[in-house]
TrEMBL record:
This is DUF309 domain-containing protein. The lineage of its organism: Bacteria, Bacillati, Bacillota, Bacilli, Bacillales. SUPFAM superfamilies: TTHA0068-like. It holds the Pfam family DUF309.
């Protein structure tokens, strides 16, 4: 199956932890079809990771929870992505978040946090 180039670039940038940039890529195609909740869920996951990296825990939690809500109907696999693995990652992220609404940037950078490497393909 053929996918939009921005989706493929998103996977690459996500794996490089360039969360703000990969959000921008998917936003381009999501704006053309806002009913695509799969793309919206991936966008929100990237934004959640971006928020976390800056210490915005409240924003990260909100984005992770919404991402999980949007991606759940697409499990176990959609657009050659293991959505079940993404959902497990989101659950780990939510569980790893501190209770505070915000933490210093340096604390967020030093904190161990779940990691996910996205790959496309069948099992």
């Amino acid at each position: 199956m053929s996918y939009p180039e921005q989706y493929l670039q998103f996977i690459d940038l996500f794996n490089k932890k360039e969360y703000y940039e990969c959000h921008d890529l998917l936003e381009e195609i999501w704006m053309e079809d806002k009913s695509n909740k799969f793309l919206q869920g991936l966008l929100q996951m990237a934004v959640g990771l971006y928020h976390f990296s800056g210490g915005n825990i409240k924003g990260a939690r909100w984005m992770f929870e919404n991402s999980r809500k949007y991606l759940t109907p697409y499990a176990p696999r959609h657009w050659d992505l293991d959505v079940s693995a993404v959902l497990a990652f989101l659950n780990e992220c939510i569980a790893a978040l501190p209770e505070e609404n915000a933490i210093p940037y340096t604390e967020a950078k030093a904190m161990p946090f779940p990691d996910l490497h996205l790959t496309l393909g069948t099992r």
